[in-house]
Design brief:
Blueprint (H helix, E strand, L loop, with lengths): L9 E4 L5 E4 L5 E3 L14 H23 L5 E13 L4 E13 L3 H14 L1 H6 L4 E8 L1
Parallel strand pairs: 5-6
Antiparallel strand pairs: 1-2, 2-3, 4-5
Length: 139
Amino acid sequence: MSEVLFTSTATAVGGREGHVKSNDGLIDLKLVNPASNRDDQGSNPEQLFAAGYAACFDGALNLMASKQKQQIESRITAEVSLLKDSEDNGFKIAVVLHAEIKGVSQEVAEELVDLAHGFCPYSKATRGNIDVELKVKAI
């Protein structure tokens, strides 16, 4: 096993209609399943995954840009969808990552996103497991 740099911990109770809280209390959220409950307010696992993936990917993108001696400003929006899985009648997720990058051409922006996708820990964890679509826009 690789060297552990740090560990984050969160506990969920009650599944998709429950509650999730991080050990430090910074995340302390009611969970609501938007597929079956559109009236209540709360977060859901897909929203939490989208936030984590967007933040991680943006960090990887900026690291790749700095290694390529490119100065950029970036914004990553992650769309995480819950899908019906026809293989086992269960569910699966899919991700669309929207990258808006200022300071480089469209071609360079696409190259940087590809490099980030190869480096980002979330991308590594999901590779071959879920569909991830990359949409890149140089602005």
